[in-house]
Amino acid sequence: MMIPPGNKFTSMHRKFVSLLAGGILISALNGIAQSKQDSIYNAMEAFAPMVYPQGNATRTASGKPGAAYWQNRADYNVAVVLDTLTRNIQGKVTITYTNNSPGPLPYVWLSVGQNRFRKDSRTAILTPPKGSRFGVQEFTDGCRIHSLQTSIKDQPLKNTSYQVTDTYVKVQLPTPLAPGSKAVIAIEYDFTLPRNGSDFMGILPTPHGTVFQFGSMFPRMSVFDNVQGWNVFASGYYVEPGELNINFTAPADLIVQGTGQLMNPKEVLPADLLQRYEKAWKSDTVINIRSAKDINNTSLHPKGKDLTWHFHSANAGDGLWAASAAFLWDAVKVNLPDGRTALAMALYPPESNPDWKTTTISMKHILETYSNLWTPYPYNTSVNIAGSITGVAGPGVSLLHYSATSFGNTVWTKTNHELGHTWFNMMVAVDSKNGWMCEGLNTFINLINCDTLHGEPSFMMSDAIGWLSGKKTMPPVHTPAATVPPASMAMLMYIKPAVALCLLRNNVIGKERFDDAFKMFIKDWSFKHPTPNDFFSAMENGTGEDLSWFWRSWFLNDWKLDQAIKEVIYVDNDPSHGIDITIENKNKMVMPVTIEIREFNGQLHTLQLPAQVWQLGDTHTFHYPSTTPVTAVIIDPKKSIPDIDRTNNAWKGTGAKLPAVKSITARTIIDRYLTAIGGKERITQVKQGSLTYASFDSGEYLFTKKYKYPQQNNVTVTLNNINLTLKSIVTTDTSVAYTQLSTPTALTTQQKDQLRTATELFPELLFFDDNHHTVLADSLLHIDGMYAYVITVTTLIGEKWNYYYDAHTGYKIQEERKGNPEDSLLYSKLEFAGYRQQQGITLPYTMVISNFNEEDEVLSLNKIDFLAGK
Question: In the CATH scheme, what is the code of domain 658-868?
Fold first, then answer.
């Protein structure tokens, strides 16, 4: 079921620009303490061993079903008749229930979901006055049982006493059902389909006919297991997989689809549709089985005649179905890695969201990808049906809303999610009272599928990390679903467990080892009932890791993470001798540590430290063999883990000050800088120049500065992989033009002045003209790991910029626009390192762009072109 995952990036511009920011030149100095608050971390608490139930012959200590694992079985034969005028279903179900448990069962429990719509149901009583998505909006008489008979050991069926308690029915068996024996339970019943059925059943009127969508079509067995016995009110959606046959009788002008393969297509489909249906089973391209033309063809299925549609499915203890005369019907073959094929289908009214026209081919790709990543799709058919339901899944079927893209999720996103429920919780048949095992594990594989297929996820990982980085407390993920506050449901059941598993896969275990263990868990527990402890044990045994600290941090508690840089010290006070770095874990959560170290020679180094560095206490010191001044030490540079305080994640020098020599002036510093990079004469010879910097890790983002004599500057910021220009600025002595995503933007006088300065290739050449006021600070500042002279330049209309020059080499190490960083149009700060000579000019080969509320992005120089002239 899809629920609102929270706000996600909807602006393409924001998505692109957020990847462009950067930060590189920072430096190291002896003995700086970053963290001030005392740590509340307790290593013994974090790394205490998990106390698991002792393994036995039923459930092993390694998280696998044991040799004596047992599970009861329920097989269903169902016959229903739909009256479209009254929305009434007349039904008969015969359940063959096998007791595979080691003890006798004097009674059994049934689940009767239609009873939630009775006025006296617990769900109705708990529904708030203004209603709720899953509350009761419309009352019915529930499931009216007309007769209930049982038989044991092939005896004749006899009326049996039973007790109805809300949505459950306790059936007293005539004699206890012995281990290995079967009971037959036969029930005649009826119910009225509510128009608004708590967002998992209901009707949708359309111009071409009503769409009827059904859940809780028949009374089904509750699960009896070795953990809790009968899972009744304390349970969530928890199903005993079995064999299902259903005969669905409806008016002949209706198309019926749902759980199970259609077994009698020749009896219910006219010749044209039958031919297309059979063709689709063999086609890798989508076949339109029923088109808009067919909907309007009144000669097909004359009114007044009923047809019975027979569906069959293995491993389906429940189901969803829909019926309508309004359905368009598309289908395509699905190729599975075990050599089987299945049929993917989409049924939707013509008024549906246009994305429904491509849903069928999307289903094919989604199912094939899940099957190749994890285990093969288990059913013969998969059908996506449009109607009034936001999103719900059953064995081999999904019901989705026909027009809305609920909570910002696209039809593709919702389809990816609901089809994922085949693996969790149809195949791995968990009890959804552990909401994270149902929705969280599914959301996790949804995200993997999105990465593989380049599909739209229900939330951006960067957003989720931001949400989880807050200090607000929440219940633990392991909270029973029934007690999770509605406002926390998306985070606790979907987002947080999915993010946790992504981090476990990517940051802790590694994809190969994680995937091997995860696939084995799915295989071992296919159509069985694992518990959370089974999952924890299976992943630990499969990966060979003690993950007690991880489960305790992410699932069993609402612990927060706060990693910090405590101290950075040069060995022997000499950068060439390396540095000793001390990190600190200040809060209760434990995670591995990713540390980026930047040197003034332009080199970037990333270190990965395992979570076990915290096993002995809240601090850890390690040595790094630097050879030049270290400009930055940064924890989690990509912001991939949820840290509640990022202010202590970066070491960028001490901020200490030293008095400047009084005889040194701003002009002295600028002349020294110009000499260091090649000399003023050489620089002024450049009549046309171009510098292009590309993102350090991927080269996808390009930042290009161009100059053409006498007064034309141009800057472009480009997304290289799709050839998209994000920003373009062109300045002359009389004009400034600024474009974002090909859209010209009007500028104020001050904004024009800002961009004139930001686009200069060598702004120092203008510092002492009549349009600028230049002042040298009276103190050197330790910034980016070295002492620097600070020069403040003010334009005639008041724009202020700070420029920082290394006291030792004279090189510029940073330039920064003063004022509100939100107002910076191109960048708020640039940092420089890795100076090298090229074409007679010494330039920084590493640059960082920083912008407000965006991640810093390290860039490297990948193209240079200077043309001299007279």
Answer: 2.50.20.10
The string of pLDDT tens digits covering residues 370-387 is: 999 999 999 999 999 999
- Longest Cα–Cα distance of the chain, Å, equals 112
Instruction: For 249-284, give the DSSP string.
Output: EEETT-EEEESSEES-HHHHS-HHHHHHHHHHTT-S
3-state secondary structure 281-294: CCCCCCEEEECHHH
- Cβ proximity of 193 and 89 under 8 Å: yes
Count the Cβ atoms, other than its own, within 10 Å of residue 103: 11
pLDDT confidence band for 190 (50 / 70 / 90): very high
Instruction: Give every CB contact of residue 312 below 8 A, 6+ residues apart in sequence.
Output: 243, 244, 245, 246, 260, 261, 263
pTM: 0.88
Angle CA 64–70–75, to nearest 5: 120
For the chain, give percent helix, strand, coil, nearest 5.
25, 35, 40
| 202-204, strands of its sheet edge to edge | 202-204, 211-214, 321-324, 255-258
Q: Which of 27, 13, 10 is nearest to 851 (CA)?
A: 13
Contact 170, 229 (CB under 8 A): no
- CA dist 497 and 444 (Å) reads 8
Task: Extract the tokens encoding 6.
Answer: 């929270």
Is pLDDT of 735 > 50? Answer: yes
Let me know if the fold of 29-46+562-647 is the same as that of 658-868: no
End-to-end CA distance of the chain: 71
DSSP states of 528-587 as a string? B---HHHHHHHHHHHHT---HHHHIIIIIS---B-EEEEEEEEGGG-GGG-EEEEEEE-S
What kind of architecture, by CATH, is found in domain 29-46+562-647?
A: Sandwich (2.60)
Parse the chain into domains and list their residue ranges.
29-46+562-647, 658-868
SS3 386: strand
